Amino acid sequence: MSTRKLYKACLRVISNAFCRSIMAFQPNSTVKVLDPIRENYDNYLLIDVGSNMVNKKFSRDLESVLQRAKDSGVQKIIVPCTSLRTSKEALRLARIYPGSIYSTAGIHPHEAKSWEDNYYDELKDIAKNPECVAIGICGLDYNKDFSSPDIQRKVFELQISLAKEMKKPIMLHQKGAHEDFLKIIKTHLPLMLPAILHSFTGSFEEATDYINLGMYIGITGNICRYGDVSCCTINDRGLCKDSSGSGIKKLLSAGTLTLDRILVQSDSPFMYPNARAANLTDALKSSLTQRSLGFLQRYCTFHRNEPCSLPILVELLAGFISKKPDEVALATSINALKIFGMS
Question: Name one GO cellular component term (predicted).
Answer without folding.
Answer: cytosol
